[in-house]
Amino acid sequence: MTMPIQSQNTMGKVFTQLTIINRADQIRAEDGTILPEQIRSLTLENVLVDTGATTLCLPSDAIASLGLKLLKEVDVATAMGIGKARIFRDATLSIFGREGTFECLESPGGADGLLGVIPLEALGLDIDVQNQTLKPLPISPTDTYLTIL
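^ that's the sequence the OP posted. Answer follows.
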């Protein structure tokens, strides 16, 4: 299964749709502190898949909607030079039936989401540049992207 890009002027770019869930809410629902329907989540369209980026980047309004907790402030390299950014914890990504929990960087300027190389590799996702799609790598008893050599 592959996920096509959007039909805008995106030559050479790959976009995807991501569901992000507040992992802390999931834990509270598991222990009965909150109801399952109180778990905060959202789906973002037009998330740029960027192997030049390190991690998941989310706009500040998405972080606020999810109620993610601040972890730390860091220096980051951007196209505009070195600047400060905030990192938040416990963002669970769901895509192609795969889930992983990651830190996320608050996108400078409120840009759309950005999916970097760490979550791509951890979730076993690959970019098909020729077809401008994102696809899951195999994970089966006979062929798997996971290695422990």
